[in-house]
Amino acid sequence: MAARALLLLLGGFGLFASAAKMKIVEEPNTFGLNNPFLPQTNRLLPKMAPSPTTGPAHLFRLAGKCFSFVESTYKYEFCPFHNVTQHEQTFRWNAYSGILGIWHEWEIHNNTFVGMWMREGDSCETKNRETKVLLLCGKSNKLAHVSEPRTCVYSLTFETPLACHPHSLLVYPTLTEALRRKWDEAEQSLYDELITEQGYKKLLKEIFEEAGLLRATEEKEIEKHSKKLKSLEFETAETCMKEYKQLSKEIKRLKDLLTQHGIGYERNSAENTSAEHIKLVTAKPSVLNGSKATEHLRGDTGIWNDTY
Predict the structure, then answer these.
(1) I need a labelling partner for 177 at 20 to 30 A (CA). Which of 40, 154, 229, 279 fits?
(2) SS (H, E, C) 220-275
(3) One domain, residues 189 and 92
(4) Tens digit of each residue's pLDDT (9 = 90 or more) over 9-25
(5) Cβ atoms of 134 and 78 closer than 8 Å
(6) How many domains does one find in the chain?
(7) How big is the chain by its Cα radius of gyration, in Å?
């Protein structure tokens, strides 16, 4: 009996010794977008595609590059015109690695680009994470500061020599000639007191949205799409008939004009429409309104987003 107890004791001691020699394998970290140890469903998956690259053209050279900043146990990565990510640098089995925002739109104050808004990041309670990246003059391209002024709303400071020239971040020079004229007209209307300061700001916001510098609200996008579809259809049968009569009248006028100048035509039976499709079949040149007609006659087919 005593011998049996001794054997059990020795066996238990041997088991303990072998356990003491076991190597502890750390859980792989979740750094980066393409960690092969992480299941596909848990990798960083964006909710939306980044907005088109807009703003000062000299900043476009930052596209495709990423800049890192390490604070405490977190590594932040800012990829201009793409996204902002955060990676927890610990070996916990559930270390956080996620998207703090995807390139969305500019923040504009006083005719100046002051920052880039990254929105629609990972879910955070009842909303999505978002980040504002402030642009400051610096000797080199680098992330200089990171903070979280409100829960799940982050603020990054990015320094770059591309922002050092006094006019480097002005909005007006980045606009098309047509949008500049709209801005000039808005300025004149404000000066003539034809619109209020609030009305002026509203006009500027519309100009910036048209330029792609600001993203229109979802409601505006839906309204714009609905108007576009509505313009392609007739509201009533009466409106449709009225349009048909106008087209028929125009076709008759064109036929009379062709006949007057000795240009033959025939109906194209392959065209399955209620209006006649005119096809010229003669190559005789003629004088039409002082110019030669060829063998075919055809028609030509900031203040906004200041969250904190």
Answers:
(1) 229
(2) HHHHHHHHHHHCCCCCCHHHHHHHHHHHHHHHHHHHHHHHHCCCCEEECCCCCCCC
(3) no
(4) 545 545 444 444 433 33
(5) no
(6) 3
(7) 34
